[in-house]
Amino acid sequence: MSEDKKSVSRRQFLNYTLTGAGGFMAAGLIVSPLRMAIDPVLQKSSASGDYTNVKLAVEDITNEPQRVEWKIDQVDGWYESKVTKAAWVYKKENGDIVALSPICKHLGCFVSWEGSDDYPDEFYCPCHGGRYYKSGVNVPNTPPTAGLDIYEHKVENGMLYLGKAQPREEE
Ligand code: FES
């Protein structure tokens, strides 16, 4: 009975060891920059679902839309900045609070409440004459093809908090 013993020569051992160590180091060189490049994309946004106190007391909200502005920290990849957000806020006849995005759904200009003398009781976009009813629904046959987005909101200690603006389900 002969033993089929395979021995590893010193040269082979060094080859295996150096190849293994080299591969490990090469993987580190490739994976680290790759992870740095895509990490911000994989990060869950800490702002998602957050609400901001927009410094407007609920008792000060009337039936007349008023513009409120606030700042949020925005992280875009590696770039952090303060971004100004805005909303048109009012109370419906039944007291429900409505907070509309001021961003026109045509090409993104800012709409104003009663921004045109020709169209009272409407939001008006000066860029191409886009019009919206007070509810934020777009007036048919004007450039916007959808109504203004609606902010999620909540009330805490009598103050209005706004979250993300969501596209409306068309009425
Ligand atoms: S951007 Fe508002 S109507 Fe065109």
From TrEMBL:
<dbReference type="InterPro" id="IPR006311">
    <property type="entry name" value="TAT_signal"/>
</dbReference>
<keyword id="KW-0479">Metal-binding</keyword>
<dbReference type="InterPro" id="IPR017941">
    <property type="entry name" value="Rieske_2Fe-2S"/>
</dbReference>
<keyword id="KW-0472">Membrane</keyword>
<keyword id="KW-0411">Iron-sulfur</keyword>
<keyword id="KW-1133">Transmembrane helix</keyword>
<feature type="domain" description="Rieske">
    <location>
        <begin position="89"/>
        <end position="162"/>
    </location>
</feature>
<keyword id="KW-0408">Iron</keyword>
<dbReference type="Pfam" id="PF00355">
    <property type="entry name" value="Rieske"/>
</dbReference>
<dbReference type="InterPro" id="IPR036922">
    <property type="entry name" value="Rieske_2Fe-2S_sf"/>
</dbReference>
<keyword id="KW-0812">Transmembrane</keyword>
<keyword id="KW-1015">Disulfide bond</keyword>
<dbReference type="InterPro" id="IPR014349">
    <property type="entry name" value="Rieske_Fe-S_prot"/>
</dbReference>
<feature type="transmembrane region" description="Helical">
    <location>
        <begin position="12"/>
        <end position="34"/>
    </location>
</feature>
<keyword id="KW-0001">2Fe-2S</keyword>
<protein>
    <submittedName>
        <fullName>Menaquinol-cytochrome c reductase iron-sulfur subunit</fullName>
    </submittedName>
</protein>
